[in-house]
Amino acid sequence: MKNLKYFPFERNKYFYGKLLSVEDFEVEQRYMNDKRRVLNRFLYGTGIVCGMNVLVVDDTTISVEPGLALDFSGREIVIDAPVTRRLSVIEGFENFRKAEDVKGYLYLCLDYDEKEKEEVHNVTGVVHTEYNRYQEGFRLYVTEREPSTENLSAGASYEKTRVLYSGNGIRIKQTVPRFAAAGGEAELKVTVENIGQILPIHFSYELELTGMEWEGRRFLKAEFREEDYEKSHSYEICYRLKTITSREAAASLETVPGSFELSLGEQAEEAEVSQKLTLQVICGDLKEKLIQNYYESAMDAIVRNNYQQSIYLAKLFVIRAGESYIIDSVKPVPFGQYVYNNMLSDMMNRLYLKEERERRKNTPGDFSKNLPDSEKFRALLEGGNITSGSVTMDLGMGGSKGQRFFSEELSHNLGLGKVRIFLGHCMDIEDKEVIYGSPEVFEKMSFRAETAARVNGEKGTFQIGLRLIEPTMTRFVRIDWMAVRDPADPLHDMEEMELFIKPGILHMKTRESFFLKTEFHGTEPTEVVWSVKEEVGGSIEQNGKYTAPNLPGIYEVKVQSTVYERLHASIFIIVRDED
Question: What is the Cβ-side half-sphere exposure of residue 292, based on CA atoms within 13 angstroms?
């Protein structure tokens, strides 16, 4: 089912007496697959959904961890068990080894793949054997080529990247935003990649700015000296540009002819570059413009780019010496091919609210000072400092005077720390009147009870209690609640509490032992429980002493706090033979 053209959708029409053929059943499968894949591609995007970490097992071997990805056509790619392979046996490495142009890196790529399986006899006699199943899988390979399109990265929606110069073992790229606010700022990012050059790299060039300026000038001189940076495979230089137009217009950055100078060590190199980058200056809201641009262009961009494109799992930096090689380091997902799902969106929203509350807390003076009550409430609400809800308490057959009833532990969703709870109760779940404060104030009440709330600041939860003032036959009582946090109060979100295992990754020999340690952030250390995920993955004592098994492999060790259920961590331990 390698169909890459989904439109138009076509499905079977069934009727009594219809003769079903092989083509009819293929149409049935194609229709269901295409609908699902179109939703995957248009709603979620392309890239890694989770997992697929690339680990270095030893100097010549890598391991790809289990995970899920969506390819350029919305097809699911699942790795359900760790894949450990020597780099030399992966497809494409032989071409890299024989290449005369010695490069210090290559990319590990992933493609969707499927194979026929389960050979069966064909009763028609035309072809004696056929295959009964398709098994969906994946293909790993390595290449020196970079992706031919930017559309695989989410960043392509709001910025554009172009190669300014490539050669002599280096590559220089320029990145600018697609849109900038009138009278605002735009960032030019110059990326320098060392892809095999041993000598120190020096270069400089000038850009002529139209509709923008840099430090009050209409020209920008970009310079780079590798000795000024800590040795790395990649460097970034950022320049803050200011837009000088007050209306919507196009702005540009263009290299000045003859200004590019390049030297490797003390040797000057001849090179000529020419590039013009444009961005749109707008007067409205940048976020709204980006969203509008996406809705206008996404359909055309996705359909136009529906051809074979790989997911780049890692950039592998390799040291070559004749026929031998050593894996120096790994850069995961070099082109940012991740799928941004709803869970991540919720996490980012929480982090944004946390930063906003911290900003307001650190603002001199009380942000709600001198505001009327209605405006204070609005400010609290907009800051994410108020939540509300209701709980129904079952009194059974009623209760006697003084009898107490308690709700389950409830979460107010305002994080940890001090929170105030306001309660109101009604006679039964259908009653539209809600009483706040003491019910003794009102004379004609068939149901009289006191309510209170007990807040647990360490867990971010609370419990509601009810005590009957007089006997009642009422069974169900609804209690409305509202939780309020003052922005000036210290905030301790669950995201601040973290648990780590030291070291982050561990290489061991079979039957070797090592003491693992825990490190807590945002909370006092608690008791923990250690475990090994795999049954044959060795053993670990509750003091953190791990003993490797007799069998080489990659094993996961977990640790869980006994106090906080959400506080846990894990590491991967690579076990090799003593040889």
Answer: 9
- The Cα diameter of the chain in Å comes to 98
Provide the pLDDT confidence category of residue 311 given band limits of 50, 70 and 90.
very high
Residue 83: per-residue pLDDT:
93
Can you list the positions of beta strands (E) in 65-178?
67-70, 76-79, 83-86, 105-121, 129-143, 159-167, 170-177
What is the CA angle 277-283-287, rounded to 5?
80
**Exposed e or buried b per residue across 101-131, where buried means at least 16 C-beta atoms within 10 angstroms of its C-beta:** eeebbbbbbbbbeeeeeeeeeeeeeeeeeee
pLDDT at 357: 65
Q: Which residues, 6 or more positions from 207, have their beta carbon under 8 angstroms from its beta carbon?
A: 188, 219, 220, 221, 222, 253, 254, 255, 256
> Residue 55, Cα to own-chain centre: how many angstroms?
19
3-state DSSP assignment of residue 221? strand
DSSP 333: S
Smallest CA-to-CA distance from 186 within 194, 175, 195 is with: 175
pTM of the model: 0.57
How high is the pLDDT of residue 96? 84
> How many angstroms separate the CA atoms of 326 and 88, rounded?
11
pLDDT of residue 372: 44
121 in Cβ contact with 306 (< 8 Å): no
Where are any strands of DSSP class E within 485-527?
498-502, 505-509, 513-515, 517-521
| CA 506 from centroid of its chain's CA atoms | 25
Q: Which residue(s) pair with 411 in the sheet?
A: 461
pLDDT at 429 over 70: no
Question: What whole-number distance in Å separates Cα of residue 391 and Cα of residue 529?
Answer: 34
Q: Out of 276-280, 296-300, 317-321, 427-431, pick the least confident.
A: 427-431
* CA dihedral over 82, 86, 89, 90, signed as positive or negative: positive
Domains of the chain: 22-139 (no CATH), 154-304 (2.60.40.10), 373-484 (no CATH), 497-576 (2.60.40.10)
Rg (CA), the chain: 32
H or E stretch covering 378:
helix 373-382
| Calpha distance 371→501 (Å, rounded) | 48
Which residues have a Cβ under 8 Å from the Cβ of 7 and sit 6 or more positions away? Answer: 303
Spell out a b/e string for 370-394, using b for 16 or more CB atoms within 10 Å of the CB, else e.
eeeeeebeeebeebbbbbeeeeebe
Tokens standing for 106?
Answer: 């290559």
Query: How would DSSP label each residue in 474-489?
Result: --EEEEEEEEE--TTS
**What are the angstrom distances between the C-alpha of 369 and each of 6, 35, 366, 375, 579?**
59, 55, 5, 10, 71
